[in-house]
Amino acid sequence: xxxxxxxxxxxxxxxxxxxxxxxxxxxxxxxxxxxxxxxxxxxxxxxxxxxxxxxxxxxxxxxxxxxxxxxxxxxxxxxxxxxxxxxxxxxxxxxxxxxxxxxxxxxxxxxxxxxxxxxxxxxxxxxxxxxxxxxxxxxxxxxxxxxxxxxxxxxxxxxxxxxxxxxxxxxxxxxxxxxxxxxxxxxxxxxx
Length: 192
Fold this sequence. Notes:
It is a single chain. The protein is an alpha/beta fold. It has a single domain (28-185), classed as Rossmann fold (3-Layer(aba) Sandwich). It has six helices and four strands, in the order αβαβαβαααβ. A four-stranded parallel β-sheet has the order 1-2-3-4, sandwiched between helices. Helix 2 (45-72) links the parallel strand 1 (27-30) and strand 2. The two termini are 33 Å apart.
């Protein structure tokens, strides 16, 4: 998807088989992000616009479409859910820092949205969760930027996409008597 403007998010979900498709959506992940790490006085209106589109407007549009679909689902008898919506956050979701004012503002908003939706839709058997990802993730892009084979091989200092996915599957499989709203993931040696 080239943009997280609400009209394109809605169109993207429709093209992917949601909203009106023959197969029910049972799980959805909002994993969009845009990083702005600058001193406050260097942040531009364009930086704020992109942060707002990604973390607020895009997440609202995505959640609106997904939750509307989930409400049409029958309750899954294995876990008591109509569906699960997971939002990916960051450490900046709970703590700002010297160069994260724009990034943190967006992630704080995303976290607040997920908490509000969890409280509103939990009563309708829809699980909403927020995952804080604290640390570098070993992806092809991060490996090319880091160019440090020791970093990539050492699971004590970076997250693996497979481990994150496993944690998201864990969230999706939770029974309704014990749902997690917020999960905090970090490698063993992450400074926090």
